[in-house]
Amino acid sequence: MFCFPLTNWTTMRGASSVTTITQSESQWLDLTGFEDIITWLEVKNLTAGGGTGVTLQYQTGPTKDEALFAGTAAAFALTTGVTVTKALMSAASVPLARWLRWQLGSGAATSSWDATFRIWVAANIGPHPLRPQVTAPPLRPNGKSCNGDCQKGGSPPIAGMTVAQRVAQRQQMQQQQQQLQRQNARQVTTPTTGHVLNALKYRGPTPN
C-alpha cells in the first residue's frame, strides 16, 4: 500500500445558498495504476448550519472532465472523529479510475455551514484476478535454473522465490562480485618489491 494526503487540514465554509463544495482541481490525486483505496477522514469541527448535516462523497473519473466524475460510493454524513472507508475494485459501485477527489454537501442548510477535516489515502496496485500471474521456474541456491543437471549431482532446485527474495539475492551477488573486483584491483595495482627496485635502476644516478 502507498499512502498519500488527499487533503491536509483545511476548513471549508459555505453560505446557505451553497449546496456543494468540490475539492480544487490542483489537489486531485492522480492514482494511475492503482485499483484499491482506503481513506482515513478525520473531522475536528463541524457546523451543520441548521440542515440535516454536512455530507462528503469520494468521486473518481478517468479524465478531469466534470461530466465523467462519479462517486465511488454514496455520500455519507460527517461526524467528528476518524472515519475509514474502503473502495475496493472488487466491491466498489464505481471502481477507482485515474483521478480522485472529494465533494462536500450542505445537507439543506439554512445558514452558513462548515467543516474542518483532513483525508489520507492508502492505495493498492493489485494483484487482480485478470492480471496474468507468472510462476518462476525452480532455482538452485546460486540463482541458476536446474536444466537437468540436478540428476547429474548438481544442487537440487529450491522452491519458487518471491520478488523480494530475488532482489535480496541479486544484491548479495552484486556485493560479492564488487568485493572480488576490489580485491583483484588491489592485487594488480600494488607494486611488488621487485618492481620498486627495477624502477629505481632506471632513474639514473642521484645528483649530489
Structure write-up:
- The chain has 208 residues and is of the alpha+beta class.
- The protein has 2 domains: 2-124, Jelly Rolls (Sandwich), CATH 2.60.120; 135-191, no CATH class.
- Helices cover 17% and strands 32% of the residues.
- The chain has 2 helices and 10 strands.
- It has helices spanning 163-189, 193-201, and strands spanning 2-14, 20-22, 29-30, 36-47, 55-61, 70-71, 76-77, 81-87, 99-105, 113-124.
- The strands form 2 sheets. Strands 2, 3, 5, 6, 7 and 9 form a 6-stranded antiparallel beta sheet that branches.
- The longest helix has 27 residues, at 163-189.
- It is elongated.
Task: Please give a quick description of this structure.
17% of the residues lie in helices and 32% in strands. The N and C termini lie far apart (77 Å).
* Range of helix content: 10-25%
Major pleated sheet: 6 strands, antiparallel
Mean pLDDT: 79
CATH topology of the largest domain: Jelly Rolls
- Sheet-strand content, in percent, reads 25-35%
Which CATH first-tier class of the largest domain would you pick? Answer: Mainly Beta
- How many domains make up the 3D coordinates? 2
CA radius of gyration: 32 Å
Anisotropy-based shape? elongated
Structural class: alpha+beta
Give start-end ranges of low-pLDDT stretches: 154-158, 192-202
Q: What count of helical segments does DSSP give?
A: 2
CATH architecture descriptor text of the largest domain: Sandwich
- Distance between the ends: 77 Å
Q: How many strand segments?
A: 10
